[in-house]
Automatic annotation (TrEMBL), chain A:
Belongs to the binding-protein-dependent transport system permease family. Residues 71-284 form the ABC transmembrane type-1 domain. It is found in: Cell membrane. It is a multi-pass membrane protein. This is ABC transporter permease subunit. The chain crosses the membrane at residues 12-34, 76-96, 108-129, 157-180, 207-226, 265-288. Its main location: membrane. GO terms for cellular component: plasma membrane. It comes from Paracoccus litorisediminis. Keywords: Cell membrane, Membrane, Transmembrane, Transmembrane helix, Transport.
Automatic annotation (TrEMBL), chain B:
Keywords: Cell membrane, Membrane, Transmembrane, Transmembrane helix, Transport. The keyword Cell membrane applies. Residues 71-260 form the ABC transmembrane type-1 domain. It comes from Paracoccus litorisediminis. It holds the Pfam family BPD_transp_1. SUPFAM superfamilies: MetI-like (SSF161098). This is ABC transporter permease subunit. Belongs to the binding-protein-dependent transport system permease family.
Length: 294, 276
């Protein structure tokens, strides 16, 4: 009897411990997940309501030219950011790792600081640096293109420039992960191989790279997910323009829901974005793991 | 041979610092701009080095914009979010890690699974929900959807799993409850990880843009990242003021980072699972 009562009390205590989280989670996470699915089959406005319209939103989406433009731009942005930022971060991590003590802390701070800035601070600073008339970087652009360029109003420059700003802003995170990965590699491997006469390049190819690969794969996967969720920077820098050349899926969600008052249609796009992110990241992770094993 | 190696090392170190200086240039440039007068900023003579020390832009930023409101909103909501996320997270993680109850596995599965759902895809139903609850343009509306941070539970669970069983037995013999156990034993043993998770949660809610941007409708209710986007409209083309507001908005977290650099670095590594 006592044991059963004890067990019951134990369970009650456990449930009281999980209750606050479970309650909040159900209200602001689980319920919205169910809702976003339901809404995607309705013609609800932003305030809700609406009637069941079956697959109409999805049919509309498949014939929406902007959807394909956005999809293409999302893909382009992923190409411009994921691998480049990982490569740059790896280079920086290798450079920073050589240093020690205060010098390392200083170098790390220089590369990491942008990561903790609010996105609007980042975009304000870069918009000013790339300002068409007075931007401090315009002479650099002139060297490349021969003339000053209003980069966020130019269909060819806008995506690469948003990518550049994004890499500058978020790269510190990748540097940290790779640095942690480098620190986990046992130091005696390098000492032993040095005794055997291995040079730096050989050490990198035979020790660093294979042992760091799981972390590189993690960084690539996290980056892919992060960059598919592009919204803040592109909204603040170019609002998807010019001529939709930087229009992306989450901008579509925003505009449909909050400017055109099409809650149902926006929900359908949201779900497609969600499925896209899950599929692509699972696929990429599996692929990278297979490559890693070889 | 040795001399050559030493030169090589010095060159690499110099290269690293130069690269770091270039990387931080945008912040340097924002600062140089912010201490110039507006006329100087757009004049031909404005060089790369600071040549004026004029704080009028900062004065304007503090007294002629809603920056102070934004600070209060950002600090208030971020602190509340951090406190609730940590408290509910550690309670839930303790139950999952140390207790036996039907649904335990399912709960942890749901927590792990929710990690996969990007918050951005839920903004439409979340907005409708906040509207139904009357929380649009309120602190409650900013806070509620930011309270689900699965990684806090995942990290706490890992650390609670690693606490030696003997610790627990001593408290059980004294007749202590699980609440005593959590707050008197497990929490004090894990202050380090608690600080780390608090830092991560605080920074990410301080910097949150999309959700506060959607749920706030008036300027005096905005958080810093959202408010900064209004400065353009308010000041027109005034780069010194723009940069001073941006730097003031970034300052609290940036300064905190520079002071607690090691802790922040650790926190980022732990919460991404690279170093436990």
């Amino acid at each position: 009897m006592a044991m059963i009562r004890n067990q019951r009390r134990h369970r009650l205590v456990a449930y009281s411990l999980i209750l606050p989280f479970v309650a909040i989670f159900s209200l602001v996470f689980a319920y919205p997940i169910v809702e976003v699915i339901r809404l995607s089959f309705t013609n609800a406005t932003l305030i809700g309501g609406g009637e069941w319209v079956g697959l109409q939103n999805y049919r509309e989406l498949l014939s929406d030219k902007l959807f394909y433009t956005s999809l293409k731009n999302n893909g382009y942005f992923v190409l411009l950011t994921v691998v480049p930022t990982t490569a740059i971060a790896l280079g920086i991590a290798l450079m920073v790792q050589r240093l020690s003590g205060r010098l390392q802390a200083l170098a790390l701070a220089l590369f990491f600081l942008p990561y903790i800035l609010p996105v609007s601070v980042v975009t304000q600073i870069w918009a000013w640096m790339l300002d068409f008339q007075f931007g401090v970087l315009q002479p650099v652009l002139e060297l490349i293109a021969g003339k000053p360029i209003p980069v966020f109003k130019n269909p060819h420059w806008v995506m690469p420039m948003v990518a550049l700003v994004t890499i500058w802003w978020t790269n510190g995170f990748n540097v940290l992960l790779l640095l942690a990965g480098l620190r986990n590699i046992p130091q005696d491997l390098y000492e032993a191989s040095a005794l055997d006469g291995a040079n730096r390049r050989q050490q990198f190819a035979r020790i660093t790279w294979p042992l760091l690969w799981p972390v590189v794969a993690l960084v690539l996967t996290l980056q892919l997910i992060l960059q598919l969720k592009l919204f803040d920077q592109v909204y603040l820098l170019s609002e998807g323009g010019p001529f939709n050349s930087s229009y992306v899926l989450l901008l579509m969600v925003y505009r449909e829901a909050f400017q055109q008052n099409n809650g149902g249609y926006a929900a359908a796009i949201s779900l497609v974005v969600f499925l896209l992110i899950v599929t692509v990241s699972v696929l990429q992770y599996q692929l990278l793991r297979i490559r890693g094993r070889k | 041979m040795i001399a050559q190696k030493r030169i090589e090392n010095a060159a690499l170190t110099a290269l690293t610092l130069v690269a770091g200086a270039i990387w931080i240039f945008p912040l340097y440039w924002a600062f140089v701009t912010s201490i110039r007068t507006e006329n100087r900023v757009v004049s031909d003579q404005a060089g790369l080095l600071p040549d004026e020390f004029n704080l009028s832009a900062y004065h304007d930023a503090l007294f002629n914009s809603s920056l102070v409101h934004w600070y209060v909103n950002s600090i208030g909501t971020s602190l509340i979010i951090t406190a609730i996320v940590l408290l509910t997270g550690m309670m839930c993680a303790y139950a999952i890690s140390q207790m036996n109850f039907p649904g335990r596995r399912l709960l942890y599965g749901v927590v792990l699974g929710s990690f996969m759902v990007p918050a951005q895809v839920l903004v439409v139903p979340q907005f409708m929900l906040m509207n139904d609850l009357g929380l649009i343009n309120k602190w409650g509306g900013i806070i509620l959807p930011q309270l689900v941070v699965p990684v806090v539970i995942i990290v706490y669970k890992q650390f609670f799993d690693a606490v030696p069983k003997e610790m627990k037995e001593a408290v059980v013999l004294d007749g202590g409850s699980d609440y005593t156990m959590l707050f008197k034993v497990y929490l004090p043993l894990n202050w380090g990880i608690t600080t780390a998770l608090a830092i991560i949660t605080f920074i990410s809610s301080w910097n949150a843009f999309l959700w506060p941007f959607l749920v706030i409708t008036t300027e005096d209710m905005m958080t810093i990242p959202v408010g900064l986007t209004q400065v353009n409209d308010a000041f027109g083309v005034a780069y010194a003021r723009l940069m001073s507001v941006a730097l003031l908005g970034a300052a609290p977290v940036a300064i905190a980072y520079l002071i607690f650099q090691k802790r922040v670095t650790e926190a980022v590594m732990i919460s991404s699972g690279v170093k436990g």
